[in-house]
Design brief:
By secondary structure, this protein is mainly alpha-helical. The chain has seven helices and four strands. The structure holds heme C (5 copies). The site of one heme C has 22 residues, from helix 2 and helix 4.
């Protein structure tokens, strides 16, 4: 009963906002002119969750984010989705979360019930696959699980993203659902991939799916395996706070490894090696092997 009341309440709220045209802050580049909300929402008989226009919310996004849409410079095609070691240039936007948490999950994923971020959980529930009784049976990742199409307020990983965000003015913040500057979003779902120098060397912690450590600094870490700075293809050390820019004049930024902004320690994170979209290799790593 309480649940039904809350859902009804939020739908009435949405209708109110749209029909009375009350300005809800919506950030560029999604603040198109004209019927801003109507680009994505419809008030009556809407086929999608949160009164969105498409039964499959990914089709709403791809409607513009395609080679023939208004966001043709950021296109997505369902065939772009990655299968590890097979093909693909983008993180999956249809893959299912596992029903139970297990360290043996191929992707290191844990179940919906065990995620910690309330925003991620709320959107996984909005776009879940339901049974006849309306209960979620499968939780699937989707574009607006990871992205908030209304807001650019939280910080992404991308070192070229503007560091000082001015509400409603600055683009390039990638509209993240939650802050991902330390890859918090990746780590919440891919929980069993979050390993330290110590856990990868085991044994004793019960974690068996060994993975490259994250949250470790390169320079003067406790293991002593690593260079102080990674090398560029020309053999010179990469430079710059996050190794994103190369002071030696090397002009190919795509071969730079980027570390997090936890200066001075600048740690290895998932996105040091992986990219989310528009990769040039499978398993979403930065380069072809
Ligand atoms: C680019 C597409 C897009 C535009 C433009 C857009 N929305 Fe949304 N909106 C979505 C999607 C997708 C969801 C469901 C996912 C979510 O909750 O973020 C949503 C959810 C909502 C919700 C329910 C969840 C919440 O955040 O409270 C409200 C209310 C809402 N939108 C209002 C608006 C209003 C008002 C406008 C116009 C000022 C607008 N939206 C413009 C895509 C859009
Ligand atoms: C698993 C989470 C996830 C899913 C699913 C996802 N994205 Fe992303 N997306 C991200 C992250 C994280 C970034 C920012 C990467 C960074 O900071 O370097 C991003 C960046 C982007 C960008 C900016 C890319 C650029 O090069 O400027 C666009 C556009 C985008 N996503 C659209 C989409 C669309 C459309 C979908 C669905 C078809 C989608 N995303 C699905 C996580 C996701
Ligand atoms: C009505 C058209 C339209 C729809 C629908 C739409 N987008 Fe966009 N989106 C755009 C345009 C235009 C841009 C700007 C592209 C550019 O200039 O690089 C953009 C940019 C983005 C960016 C990059 C923002 C930045 O500054 O880095 C993300 C992320 C994004 N969209 C996600 C989504 C998601 C997720 C959905 C579905 C919920 C969606 N979009 C639906 C038109 C749309
Ligand atoms: C909301 C949960 C969620 C988040 C957040 C998330 N992932 Fe995933 N990820 C998945 C799911 C589900 C799959 C499995 C897709 C499938 O079954 O093919 C996956 C698959 C992958 C794969 C294997 C290739 C593929 O797409 O199938 C890689 C690599 C990956 N994720 C990296 C990341 C990184 C890096 C981040 C942070 C930017 C991230 N993921 C954020 C749920 C998530
Ligand atoms: C030191 C670089 C590096 C780091 C850091 C890293 N990965 Fe990977 N990851 C790779 C490479 C390379 C592959 C491809 C392995 C292969 O094809 O056998 C991969 C494969 C994967 C896969 C595909 C499944 C598989 O085993 O092939 C997933 C999922 C994944 N990584 C998630 C993550 C997540 C989540 C993080 C952060 C917690 C992370 N990775 C950190 C380099 C890295």
């Amino acid at each position: 009963m309480l649940k039904r009341f809350v859902i009804l309440g939020s739908l009435v709220g949405l209708g109110f906002l749209i029909s009375f045209g009350i300005a809800r802050a919506i950030d560029p580049p999604h603040n198109f002119s004209g019927d801003i909300c109507g680009n994505c929402h419809m008030l009556h008989n809407s086929p999608g969750g949160s009164l969105t226009k498409n039964a499959d919310v990914n089709n709403l996004c791809i409607g513009c984010h395609s080679s023939s849409g208004t966001a043709s410079n950021k296109p997505f095609d369902p065939a772009d989705q990655a299968g590890p070691g097979v093909s693909g240039t983008s993180h999956s936007w249809t893959g299912a979360m596992p029903a139970t948490s297990s360290q043996n999950n191929q992707y290191g994923l844990r179940a919906y019930a065990d995620l910690t971020n309330a925003e991620l959980k709320a959107r996984l529930a909005t776009f879940c696959v339901k049974d006849a009784g309306g209960n979620c049976v499968t939780y699937k990742v989707a574009c607006p699980v990871c992205h908030n199409p209304h807001s650019q307020s939280v910080t992404p990983w991308d070192p070229t993203s503007p560091q000082t965000y001015t509400f409603g003015v600055t683009n390039g913040r990638h509209m993240q659902r939650m802050a991902n500057d330390l890859n918090q979003m990746c780590e919440d779902c891919h929980f069993y991939r979050v390993q330290t120098h110590t856990t990868v060397e085991g044994p004793g912690d019960g974690i068996k799916v060994f993975s490259h450590p994250v949250g470790q600094k390169l320079s003067a870490n406790s293991k002593g395996y690593d260079r102080a700075a990674p090398l560029d293809v020309n053999g010179a050390p990469q430079s710059g706070a996050r190794f994103a820019t190369d002071g030696t004049g090397e002009t190919n930024p795509t071969n730079n490894l980027v570390f997090d902004g936890s200066s001075p320690d600048n740690m290895v994170r998932c996105l040091t090696c992986h990219r989310v979209h528009y990769t040039d290799s499978n398993s979403l790593s930065i380069h072809q092997p």
